[in-house]
Amino acid sequence: MHWLALVTLALLLEYFVFVILVGIARSKCGIDGPSMVGDPSFERALRVQQNTAEQLILILPSMWLFALYVSPIWASILGTVFLIGRAIYCIGYRAEAKKRGRGFIIGFGVWLVLLFGSIYGVVKALLA
Fold this sequence. Notes:
By secondary structure, the protein is an all-alpha fold. The chain has helices spanning 2-29, 40-69, 72-95, 101-127.
């Protein structure tokens, strides 16, 4: 479970980096808070951060349930793939909105595996 904790911390640190990137984009584009619109490069950075927050709500519990009921090693590996997918998503989306797809698909695919694996593991445990 130590590896899973490390992956969880890495995901939280990655999210923190995305928050910092929004602040940098806000400053660079001259967009004062509370405004959330203006320069497209700021809006793309903001969407990366917001979408990642939405994804963390799904991935973290799924990853931990998968670890508990299926395999902590595989949960850690899949969490790392999700982390890489989010980085790809960030790089693509910040360059151009149309380039976010590959990173999103990686993350969404990992989440589905973790979710359905968790469901399988919980049901199996309940029936045992």
